[in-house]
Design goal:
two-stranded antiparallel sheet; about 70% helix; two-stranded antiparallel ribbon; about 250 residues; about 5% strand
């Protein structure tokens, strides 16, 4: 969830409901709402109703289904959106305090899916949000494969074969580009280690993660799925940052 944006939407909704109440109170004459105030309340009522479903989804995500259901209860009198406003205010508080509470309940670093490499999270995001974690992993692995093909200019091979060709220690030849680890001096022990490690890791995620997501129909748990995406993200960064060696 984009917490700052969610808080912004909820705060805007709270402001609308407060103005709805205030306009009604200020426009009261002899127990009745004046014409101008009534027209403004109609405008505000329409604006509130246009947002109420979106706000309900945010409240459900932060406070749970019962709070989201309660907010739809309309009261009699000037402040008919009191329950909705109070639920939105509670959701704002929960979102603002959520990071702190998470640290208290589960101390230690947290892995944010939105921080994964764009080749991984971009194709996975919609399916992951819909609860289709296996499909999300498969989409991310497919994107990684296609981006590697593009860097290598090799569309005739994929998966394990592509990874082996990409990080092969053999020098490039016509039609056979190579990927080389960035930031490491060629010819050094560190370079050889990085090259071998990149090849092994790339081959590993293609076999253990991509192939599994393609052929195994079982949905992984959220933690397991996130770890698989993280492994793909590591390889995606290696591929994206690698030097490309080629010959004419």
């Amino acid at each position: 969830m984009d917490i700052p944006r969610a808080i912004e939407v909820l705060e805007d909704f709270v402001d609308l409901t407060r103005e709805y109440l205030q306009v009604g109170m200020n426009g009261m004459t002899n127990g009745r709402v004046g014409t101008a105030a009534l027209a403004r309340r109609v405008e505000l009522d329409q604006a509130i109703r246009m947002r109420i479903v979106s706000v309900q989804r945010l409240i459900e995500a932060s406070l749970g289904p019962s709070a989201a259901a309660q907010m739809l209860r309309l009261r009699s009198g000037l402040d008919k959106y009191l329950d909705a406003r109070e639920a939105a205010e509670a959701a704002i508080g929960a979102l603002r305090d959520g990071e702190m509470i998470d640290e208290i309940l589960s101390p230690g670093p947290q892995l944010a899916a939105t921080g994964l490499h764009e080749w991984v999270w971009e194709p996975a995001r919609k399916q992951w949000s819909g609860g289709h974690r296996r499909a999300a992993i498969q989409s991310a692995a497919t994107r990684l494969d296609s981006e590697t093909q593009a860097r290598m200019e090799r569309w005739d091979i994929h998966g394990k074969a592509l990874a082996n060709q990409a990080w092969s220690a053999e020098p490039p030849s016509v039609g056979h580009r190579r990927l080389r680890p960035a930031g490491v001096q060629p010819g050094t022990e560190a370079y050889t280690s990085q090259l071998e490690g990149a090849r092994s890791l790339h081959v590993g995620v293609m076999q253990a993660i991509r192939n599994r997501a393609t052929h195994d129909l079982e949905e992984p748990s959220e933690q397991d799925g996130l770890e698989r995406l993280a492994a793909l993200s590591v390889v995606a960064r290696l591929v994206a940052e690698a030097r490309v060696e080629s010959v004419s």
